[in-house]
Structure formats: structure tokens, C-alpha cells
């Protein structure tokens, strides 16, 4: 078929001219003659002196780099902390309370708790002069602690003794005195001070109880007993909350099971209805035969039940009439023995406080006495 193509297309399939052979310009590698390999002794003079060689540069590993950055960051934080400690002066705080000895420190407050709620909870110990809720400088959100200033110092001491562990908005607060202006050398927690020990590291290093509880433990006596009772109350409240949660979960499970059973029953009813609709209508003779069969079976069941009831009544009667310790022979009919009369002797001539007549006199005047007896009976009954 190719020979029938036009010449312009046949030219595309034509082979090219062969590559012309050219002789090599130089000899090949194995054809060249060499003088053999020589040493480097004549080139050593060109090397530099080892004394002038600089020491090798050591590359820093990944662990060393991370450790260096951590150390630099710690140094920066320490320098910044020292600056803040030098500038920190609690006596020049404009937002602080006026009298530190009447101020109460309250921590672990719920972030949603308002100032009015705190006032309602702590006003039971005495009139409150001022409440300062601490907020973050950057975000403006509450930090979770506040200072409450009472009008009288005795009210502050009362709140210090009784309000520790009080539950406000599902959070147990910690109550302590203000230490910034009353304790010399005191530093807040953000500057490395404070009584809290929950930010030291892992669970083996952190202290879960507060510093106030630690002070009471050192004091011992009544404070220790009060602390133990507060711990027991807290544990009891936690157990009560867990029990209520378990009861709620059980009630939810029961409601879910009831709903599932109700749905399954409704589905079964729908299936039965659909099957009954799909079932063909039986003929009249077959329906009559089925009704007769059902009526016969009902009659048989009734007769069997009546026989069973009669048998049970006879058996119970025999048990009641049987004398204890007496053997009953088979095939022998037991005749019931009537109990002896324990009625009183009516040998007197009086009945119902009325005198009784002889039989002869009653026969002579029967009608008269019958009327009297009927009248007496009507009176008695």
C-alpha cells in the first residue's frame, strides 16, 4: 500500500544518507605510551605548614541546639523576673483595698462568677466595703481570684475560719488572708512566690493541697481536725455528685430501652396487620368448622378446669378432716365426725329471760304461746 502514496509522502519514509567515517585525531588510550606512575614527593613542598592549619569546625547537634535555646530562654525569663520583682510594690497599687488587715483573699473562683454573687455569698459574715475581682491585662478575662474588704476585722476573721471550702457555682473556693502587704518579703505567684505548688512540674513534684492546708498541718490540733472534716465533706459531695450522675445515666438507659421496646412492638403490630391483610379470606364452611372446633376446645378446657377445682376442694376437705397422726386406708370412705356440743345446759324454765311452760300446757294453748314466741323473736332480732 505504501507504493501508492504520493511522492511528497514517500519522501518522508526515505532513509537518510550514511554517516561518513572520519579518522581519529589522536591515539586511543591503550595505544598511547606512558612513563609509569610517580610519587608525590616533588609536590609536598606545595602543601601548607601544619602549624598554620586552622582547627576543624565542630557542628552542633540537635540536642545541643535545643538545650542551648532552652538555657537562653530561661536566662531571659530570669532577667525579666528580676526586673519585675524590682519594680513590684503592692503598696502603690491603686486598685487594691484600703486596709490589708480587713481584706480577704479568695481563689479558685469560677470564671463565670460575678461580683454580686460573691457579695451575696460572703456578706453573711459581715458588711462588705469593697470587692476587687482580678482580670488579665492582655485579654481582660477574670483570673479566678479576688480580694474582699470587710468593714470590720472580726468579720474578716470569721470568713477566714468558716468560708474555706465553700462551694460557689460548683467550685470550692480557697480563702486566705491578704499576705502581699502584711507579710514582709512576700511575692505573688507570678513572680515566683505564693503558697501554691501545683506548677512545679510533674505529678510527683506538684503539691495538690493548698499552702494554707500545709500551715494547718504544721499547727496541728483543732486546725488539723477541721481540715480533715472539710476533706471528708468534699469527698462526700463528690460521691453524691457521682451517684446523681450514675442515676441520671441509668434513667436515660431505661428510657432508651423503653423507647426501643415500644418501637419494636409497634413494628411487630404493623407486620401482623400487614400479614392479616395479605391473608386470603376463608370460605364460609371452613370458617364455620373453625368456630366449632374452637368452641369444642373451650368446652374441654372448662370441663377440665372444673374437674381440677372439684378435686382440689375434696383434697383440701380431707386434709382438714384428717386427725393428726392417723393413717388413712385406701378405698375407705371417711365419715366426718361432728364435734361435741359445748353449748350451755338449757334445763331451766327460762329462755331469753322469759318463763317456759310445759309441753302439755303448750299443746293446750298452742296458738297463744306461738304468738308470744313470735313477738319475743321479733323483739330479740
Give, in order, the helices and strands.
Answer: HHEHEEHEEEHHHEEHH
Shape: flat
- In spatial order, strands of the major sheet run 2-3-1-6
Helix content range: 40-55%
Gyration radius (Cα, Å) is 57 Å
Mean pLDDT: 78
How many separate helices?
Answer: 9
- Termini Cα gap: 144 Å
Strand-residue proportion: 5-15%
Structural class determined from secondary elements: alpha+beta
Sheet with the most strands, sense and barrel status: 4 strands, antiparallel
Uncertain ranges:
none
Total strand segments: 8
Can you offer a commentary on this structure?
- This protein is an alpha+beta fold.
- 45% of the residues lie in helices and 9% in strands.
- The chain is built from 9 helices and 8 strands.
- The protein has helices at 7-10, 62-87, 115-122, 153-162, 211-219, 222-278, 284-321, 359-364, 366-380; strands at 103-107, 128-135, 142-150, 167-168, 171-172, 174-177, 350-351, 354-355.
- Strands 2-3-1-6 form a 4-stranded antiparallel β-sheet. Strands 4-5 form a two-stranded antiparallel sheet.
What attributes characterize this protein structure?
381 residues; alpha+beta; 4-stranded antiparallel beta sheet; two-stranded antiparallel ribbon; 9 helices; 9% strand; flat
Task: Present the secondary structure layout.
Elements: H1 7-10, H2 62-87, E1 103-107, H3 115-122, E2 128-135, E3 142-150, H4 153-162, E4 167-168, E5 171-172, E6 174-177, H5 211-219, H6 222-278, H7 284-321, E7 350-351, E8 354-355, H8 359-364, H9 366-380
Antiparallel strand pairs: 1-3, 1-6, 2-3, 4-5, 7-8
